């Protein structure tokens, strides 16, 4: 980066408090000569013109990397691009994002943290490039997962490159030592899962002679129930009714079968009695403290539980395992995550022509190569990390780590993670195996890309009606007739309009 271009850099406080005039000036860092031609070799060809690219992105740390960060300088060297990073503290990112949208003068690239109404409206109004027609020319960007791409879309159209997260992330964290103590194999079916939960509750799995254990730990967080009802064959939020129309999950018989199972777990004491009021932050405690034997959540909880148990007792090795979903009446089914955490969108106010767009897409495509992923995720060997075989050992030097801070926010990991990993453990390896295997059994939500105006207005109220009724049914405060009455309340509170609108959107999307 040349000294004359340093003026484009913004420190955290300045970025957070920039006026609309300053934002307009920043947006003036036009991509008319930005980015690179497709492929890194052309980008770094001797004598190639160096492009310029402005990027607005959040920082979740207290400090931004300095202007002369060797990591940023290396990024500019490898991409042949002067990169103007416009940092915004994460706590004020939504406000700054909306102010910038309102100004009409946007930087070339913007990290979009979610499909907020403001982003949806701006995309529909033409503030960002629709990318579907261009992606075939970029091998990494074109390899996006179709389920995730659909989830991240607006009205079925791609307005940004998603920042990938593991789609098949969910799993069953289980006390491996308890299974071994009781001579039990890993459960694979719903019936086997029930038997393990019963044994963990009544057969003294920790061998202390006391009645002080139970099977599943749950909290007021809905995740475990949402996950398990998919095992029973319930759709992921929306499912087709056999005639091409979408119906909400709670109107299916599979959903009710799952509810009956949950109620049985509660009645028999196989789940903690206080789950409906337990704060989600307390969820790990019973598992780590040896009271509960099963957690149903993201599979990577297993490595966190393993670490917490080892922190309490360094000799407590080989206590934790992680399993896939349990096989139900429709086979192996897993509830996916949305598969992404925000998008990187290309603005039309700064990137004005198709030629400029293609250069920007070449830059984004290059960020997904192993060398760039490794740079922006891990830093530079000998500074932010040392290599140990196929793994890395990160530095603990805070000054060196500051050079890397926040740069992972512009990583997309499309089509996959290619950076060097930290040294693994048996539990980490198993988590990776489960998440990879899950990719073949995830059940997508066909309603994910559909943007409902009814839900925007009434979504929390509608969700609360069903979630409250589910909890009351599980704990025995409501019978099946009462649950059906709750569904009728859901319908009259806006649910019927919601279903009608979703189906109109779904029909238009299919056309």
Automatic annotation (TrEMBL):
Signal sequence residues: 1-27
Keyword Cell membrane belongs to the record: yes
Keywords: Cell membrane, Lipoprotein, Membrane, Palmitate, Signal
Domain of life: Bacteria
Stored PROSITE patterns: PROKAR_LIPOPROTEIN (PS51257)
Transmembrane segments: none
Pfam families, per the entry: SBP_bac_1
Alphabetized InterPro entries for the sequence: Bact_solute-bd_prot1 (IPR050490), SBP (IPR006059)
Protein name: Lipoprotein LipO
